[in-house]
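Record 1 of the preview.
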Amino acid sequence: MAEDITINSKFSIRLNGEVKELCLVLPGEVNVAAGKISYLSPIGEAVLGKVPGQSFKVYLPNGKVIDGEVLEIS
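->
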């Protein structure tokens, strides 16, 4: 079985056509400038448990929905 995104996973995603390199962390470790996002954030909730090649939707507080895709887990 392919590795999935969990806490402390480093991964790349495509979001709105832009590739982002991120790391999923606990809320107290968030550092957006360093690409560390909380698993409780809209993106974090959307990617948790996903595997490379899998698509996902991010549901933003303002009601917008963004499509994304997991590219790689490192």
